[in-house]
């Protein structure tokens, strides 16, 4: 173990926003960053400090309610993440301590602990492989939970410790590990395939022992996580902007009222009238302090123009609305029994504003399951139909007798694809190698145990079906420079043969015989179909040649110096003079409806970028097959750049290529560029481009309709997302992935979506939303995103509208009461207006409203463009709702004043004395409640029984409450100004006439505007409503 030279952190992984200790202060800080909350805190403190027209309860109680509800909601969501973390940190593991295996929890592992991992278990930390149960000291792992790849990877134990296979040997081990400080780079491990990364899973190996070198948040995958930050939607930012504007309106009204009060009181008769004599203290008080006190009093009087209840309604709408995603059966995946889940409901409306989608490839776009489709054998094309190889020109229903028999070349080709691989076979009861043993004795009836295949390349699993007893002599491993792999085998007759396979460019130049040109054409045809291609060749050795080959390989493998170079020389010497056998076309099976989903997103105006750790060729093939790239596109490449100057030159060349076509119209130029160019860039080149040439790189990207980034490290994915987020246009970004290497990207984007893959839950745990398949993204954005956005956009603006309607009459009333700060409404009405009388209709609207039927939204993705760039919360729309609120408020006040105020005999019941301040205020309030409720009814397109219930029920509740509140003497009330006022008002036919006239006057122009606009200038959304019949119960 040696002595440690630094203090190492604990093993715990944390994906939390809050802890028990910082929840209250941090949550309060987050909440008081909201302007409305901070403003109401100030108002509440002012009400406590000075004598104001309204009670401190009117501000303090709603503020406390909003803060409490929001804190509970955010605390609950963080508790769910805490629960998921505990499952990972509390997983049982075995470590070597005091000469025996001791079971402990994952979070208790320390650097220097020797950990035992058994088959199918996940590595709890970054481990150096010390030994395995295999004689050669190797183990096989899958990294599906990290990068979505299910193929098998081989790792090697440290040679000096590979013999230590018992606990006693490991306990006696004295060693020092020298390694780099923890770093995020996944492609620079501790040693050549010695490091087992946390989150990977052990396969086809009974057990291994590993030494923990990086633990907890210092493990490589944890270092690739971004620090979790609070995400805020564009709608919330718009709300803050609107609140600032309303704050300015509020301050203006308060200052104007204060100035006019002192202007009015300049006359002695109004400064100190006989009925309101000043005290001695008031006469001697400071004018400045009196002015400030009056200003603050007016501020409190008008403070309801800032709607604090807006925030609690928004929180409830987001929280309750998020359940619809989980309940949507179209987002339910029956095969895996997984439904969509919402981890953060704060971003629902952001789903309707996405402009860029960043997606992983493996496990997100693809199933990572290979299926054999076609092959070319000795110049003849074959395709797979129902498990049979059918030659070109023949059909599956041809009689078996008409099929040509397999000749020597065909048999040799099938042997090559069956034997040239690194497939491992695992049995439930015993492990066995595919080559070098007799695994097929199990398959031939000696064992009923099912076989599982594992391979270092997923293509191989699809190509391997059967083999005979061949003895494996040598494996020439695949490497990215040669781009091929080979095996040397001894045939049953004792001959020696080399089988090799690889990319077309890596095999064909070394072939000397076979149908080379025909095969090259077939390979191009396979590639155009989006198939992954491999070319297969062989070489027969004479006994003398094999002795020479064996000697060279053994010499190179045992070399102490320049081993890699000598191996490359030996491989080149062996892999030449090849006989071409044919080629295979394997389909990397895409997830269902990926192509349709990407096309729908493109029609919706959303650009799709694919960010993957895969090789360039593989990534391009999948991009072509899934419709991300089109065949007609000009593919621009920024690959294998090694210096800043080289990168800059290439970027300039690409920029010129992207701008080469110069039509007359600038708009046409943009359209042609988007249709004709795609960019491919690798991780190394991207690092150089982002370092010095960010603007140039962004210019090239914006001129391309599709971008593919390959060989990407996790943090590079996040950097690309951040690059787009912070560009001048500030587009809304969405990242989607299934592996731990996608977590940084998911956390960086405005909206992060995790795919529920076959293994691992890191992406799901760190995402805002989780879905089972990529195809569900279309409905999530085009339908749910559309609905959430229009609902909350209307909710926000309606709240401002109804509060302008509410407070403006209060402001106008001051001109008629000498700015004495007299309230127009009773304090109970002030408190209940936003909480009871007008709250439920807008909440129900914001949960159920559908402007267009969901099927229409899915079939016409272009409708998504109508709501893009926060169009429903533009300043113009905001101004319309605000002006409408002021207009309606003027009609409420002056309509009531003109119809009822001057001629009190209009009361019609002979009790003129009852028509005073409270009666007038109640009339204005009654008209206001009815009008703002009916205004929302006009905005509603999708009527349910619940909409009807709360719309008409709210109006009915107001009347019933007012009758009870004013019709009974309540012993717990100090004063009862409203006693019998409402009853008296409703007993007058004139009052009813006034209510009807004022409501119609307010709403008729709005109805007329809607009718004219719908018929003269209909939007595409309104046209779609007509096509569908407007949905259920459409209203205008």
UniProtKB/TrEMBL annotation:
Topology with respect to the bilayer: Multi-pass membrane protein
Keyword Repressor assigned: no
Main location: membrane
Catalyzed reactions: ATP + H2O + phospholipidSide 1 = ADP + phosphate + phospholipidSide 2
Residues that coordinate or bind ATP: 360-362, 460, 478, 501, 532, 612-614, 711, 717, 741-742
Cited SUPFAM superfamilies: Calcium ATPase, transduction domain A (SSF81653), Calcium ATPase, transmembrane domain M (SSF81665), HAD-like (SSF56784), Metal cation-transporting ATPase, ATP-binding domain N (SSF81660)
GO biological process: phospholipid translocation
P-type ATPase C-terminal domain location: 764-1019
Active site residues per record: 360 (4-aspartylphosphate intermediate)
Enzyme class label: translocase
EC number: 7.6.2.1
Membrane spanning residue stretches: 35-50, 241-264, 295-314, 828-848, 878-898, 918-938, 950-973, 979-1004
Cell compartment(s), UniProt: Endomembrane system; Membrane
Cofactor needs: Mg(2+)
Binding residues annotated for Mg(2+), in chain numbering: 360, 362, 738, 742
Highest taxon in the source lineage: Eukaryota
Sequence ranges assigned to domain P-type ATPase N-terminal in this UniProt record: 18-59
CDD domains hit by this protein: P-type_ATPase_APLT_Dnf-like
Record-annotated P-type ATPase A domain positions: 93-153
Keyword line: ATP-binding, Magnesium, Membrane, Metal-binding, Nucleotide-binding, Translocase, Transmembrane, Transmembrane helix
NCBIfam families per record: ATPase-Plipid, ATPase_P-type
Protein name per the record: Phospholipid-transporting ATPase
Organism: Oreochromis niloticus (Nile tilapia)
């Amino acid at each position: 173990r040696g002595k440690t030279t630094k203090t190492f952190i604990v093993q715990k992984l944390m994906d939390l926003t809050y802890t028990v200790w910082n929840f209250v202060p941090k949550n309060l800080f987050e909440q008081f960053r909201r302007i409305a909350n901070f403003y109401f805190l100030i108002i509440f403190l002012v009400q406590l400090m000075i004598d104001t027209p309204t009670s401190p309860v009117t501000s303090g109680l709603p503020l406390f309610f909003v803060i409490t509800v929001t804190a509970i909601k955010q605390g609950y969501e963080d508790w769910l993440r805490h629960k998921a973390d505990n499952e990972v940190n509390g997983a049982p593991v075995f470590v070597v301590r005091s000469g025996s295996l001791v079971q402990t929890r994952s979070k208790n592992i320390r650097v220097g602990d020797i950990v035992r991992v058994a088959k199918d278990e996940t590595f709890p930390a970054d481990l150096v492989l010390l030994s395995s149960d295999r004689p050669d000291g190797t183990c096989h792992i899958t990294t599906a939970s990290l990068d979505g790849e299910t193929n098998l990877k081989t790792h090697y134990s440290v040679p000096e410790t590979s013999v230590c296979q018992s606990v006693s040997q490991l306990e006696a081990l004295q060693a020092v590990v020298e390694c780099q400080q923890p770093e995020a780079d996944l492609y620079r491990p501790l040693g050549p395939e010695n490091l087992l990364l946390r989150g990977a899973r052990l396969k086809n190996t009974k057990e291994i022992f590993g030494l923990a070198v990086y633990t907890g948040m210092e493990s490589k995958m944890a270092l690739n996580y971004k620090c979790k930050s609070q995400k805020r939607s564009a709608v919330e930012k718009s709300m803050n902007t609107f609140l600032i504007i309303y704050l300015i309106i509020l301050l203006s009204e308060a200052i104007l009222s204060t100035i006019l009060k002192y202007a009015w009181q300049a006359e002695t008769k109004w400064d100190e009238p006989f009925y309101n004599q000043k005290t001695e203290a008031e006469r001697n008080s400071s004018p400045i302090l009196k002015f400030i006190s009056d200003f603050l009093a007016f501020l409190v009087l008008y403070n309801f123009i800032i709607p604090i209840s807006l925030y609690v309604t928004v929180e409830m709408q987001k929280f309750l609305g998020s359940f619809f995603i989980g309940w949507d059966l179209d987002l339910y995946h029956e095969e895996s029994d997984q439904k969509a889940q919402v981890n953060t409901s704060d971003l629902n409306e952001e789903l309707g504003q996405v402009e860029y989608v960043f997606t992983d490839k493996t496990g997100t776009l693809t199933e990572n399951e290979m299926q054999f489709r076609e092959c070319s054998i000795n110049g003849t094309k074959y395709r797979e139909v129902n498990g049979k190889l059918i030659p070109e020109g023949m059909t599956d229903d041809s009689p078996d007798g008409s099929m040509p028999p397999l000749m020597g070349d065909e048999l040799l080709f099938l042997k090559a694809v069956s034997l040239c691989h690194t497939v491992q076979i695992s049995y439930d009861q015993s492990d066995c190698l595919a080559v070098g043993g007799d695994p097929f004795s199990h398959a031939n009836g000696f064992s009923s145990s099912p076989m599982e295949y594992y391979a270092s390349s997923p293509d191989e699993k699809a190509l391997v079906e059967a083999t005979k007893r061949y003895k494996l002599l040598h494996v020439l491993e695949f490497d990215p420079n040669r781009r091929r792999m080979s095996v040397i085998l001894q045939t049953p007759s004792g001959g020696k043969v080399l089988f090799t396979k690889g990319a077309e460019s890596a095999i064909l130049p070394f072939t000397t015989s076979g149908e080379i040109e025909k095969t090259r054409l077939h390979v191009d045809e396979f590639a155009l179909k989006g198939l992954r291609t491999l070319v297969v060749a062989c070489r027969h050795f004479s006994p003398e040649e094999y002795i020479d080959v064996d000697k060279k390989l053994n010499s190179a493998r045992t070399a102490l110096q320049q081993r890699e170079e000598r191996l490359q020389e030996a491989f080149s010497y062996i892999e030449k003079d090849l006989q071409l056998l044919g080629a295979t076309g394997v389909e990397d099976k895409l997830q269902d409806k990926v192509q349709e989903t990407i096309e729908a997103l493109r029609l919706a105006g959303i650009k799709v970028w694919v960010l993957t750790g895969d090789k360039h060729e593989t990534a391009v093939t999948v991009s072509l097959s899934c419709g991300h790239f089109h065949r007609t596109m000009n593919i621009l490449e920024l690959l294998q750049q090694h210096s800043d100057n080289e990168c800059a030159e290439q970027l300039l060349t690409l920029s010129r290529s992207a701008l080469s076509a110069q039509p007359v119209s600038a708009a046409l130029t943009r359209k042609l560029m988007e249709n004709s160019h795609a960019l491919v860039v690798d991780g190394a080149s991207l690092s150089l481009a982002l370092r010095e040439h960010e603007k140039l790189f962004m210019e090239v990207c914006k001129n391309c309709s599709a971008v593919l980034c390959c060989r990407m490290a996790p943090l590079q994915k996040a950097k690309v997302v951040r690059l787009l987020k912070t560009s001048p246009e500030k587009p809304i970004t969405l990242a989607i992935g299934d592996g731990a290497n996608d977590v940084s990207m998911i956390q960086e984007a405005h909206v992060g979506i995790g795919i529920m893959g076959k293994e691992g839950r890191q992406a799901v745990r760190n995402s805002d939303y989780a879905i089972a398949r990529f195809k569900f993204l279309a409905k999530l954005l085009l339908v749910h995103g559309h609905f959430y956005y229009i609902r909350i956009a209307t909710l926000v603006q309606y709240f401002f509208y109804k509060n302008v309607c509410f407070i403006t009459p209060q402001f106008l009333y001051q001109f008629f009461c000498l700015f004495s700060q007299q309230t127009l409404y009773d304090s109970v009405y002030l408190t209940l207006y936003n909480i009871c009388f007008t709250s439920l209709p807008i909440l129900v609207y914001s949960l159920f409203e559908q402007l267009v039927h969901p099927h229409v939204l899915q079939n016409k993705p272009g409708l998504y463009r109508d709501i893009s760039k926060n169009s429903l919360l533009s300043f113009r729309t905001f101004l319309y709702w605000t002006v409408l609120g002021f207009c309606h408020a003027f009609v409420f006040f002056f309509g009531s004043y003109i119809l009822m105020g001057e001629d009190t005999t209009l009361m019609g019941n002979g009790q003129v004395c009852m028509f005073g301040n409270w009666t007038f205020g109640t009339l204005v309030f009654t008209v206001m409640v009815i009008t703002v409720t009916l205004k929302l009814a006009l905005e509603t397109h999708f009527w349910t029984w619940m909409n009807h219930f709360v719309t008409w029920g709210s109006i009915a509740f107001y009347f019933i409450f007012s009758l009870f509140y004013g019709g009974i003497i309540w012993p717990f009330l100090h004063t009862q100004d409203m006693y019998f006022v409402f009853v008296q008002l409703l007993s007058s036919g004139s009052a009813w006439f006034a209510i009807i006239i004022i409501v119609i006057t307010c709403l008729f122009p709005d109805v007329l505007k809607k009718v004219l606009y719908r018929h003269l200038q209909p939007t595409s959304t309104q046209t779609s409503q007509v096509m569908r019949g407007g949905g259920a119960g459409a209203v205008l």
